[in-house]
Write a structure and sequence with these properties.
alpha+beta, 29% strand, 136 residues, five-stranded mixed sheet
């Protein structure tokens, strides 16, 4: 049975099949020290998983399979980067996260710092492919 994962902030990018990576505070080991996720596991990406009101249905957005999984410092999202012909900078990890126009520092400030996660703290980087083959 596939695990449920919320993609509330990036639902549009998931529906468009632009998001292929997420970073999570946890999702590494359980309280008994067992891995929670492995390459090859399936995930059901949902609008909201936790915090639903009584009777509120789970809205399934996409079915994916994990293709890569690792722990890394949060700041790894900022590099490597590409300098475009017009002088602008593209961060491939931000594109994969579904925020192609967001600066990595803004991403960290908005989504991780409020959880008490610092730039050098390890997070779980989960990469996937869509099972319906709908990637761009």
């Amino acid at each position: 049975m596939s695990r449920l994962m919320s993609v509330a902030f990036t639902e549009a990018a998931v529906r468009d099949r632009r998001k292929t990576v997420t970073r999570r505070k946890g999702w590494w080991i359980d309280k008994r020290g067992r891995r929670l996720l492995d390459v090859g596991d399936q995930l059901t990406l949902c609008r909201k998983v936790m915090g639903r009101k009584k009777g509120e249905p789970i809205v399934r957005v996409a079915q994916v399979v994990v293709t890569a999984l690792r722990r890394e410092p949060l700041c790894a999202i900022a590099g490597p980067y590409v300098i475009n012909e017009d002088g602008s900078t593209t961060y491939p990890e931000m594109v994969a996260e579904g925020f192609p126009d967001m600066d990595p520092h803004e991403f960290m400030r908005r989504f991780f710092f409020p959880q008490g996660i610092g730039v050098m703290d390890d997070v779980t980087r989960i990469e996937w492919r869509y099972l319906d083959g709908g990637e761009p």
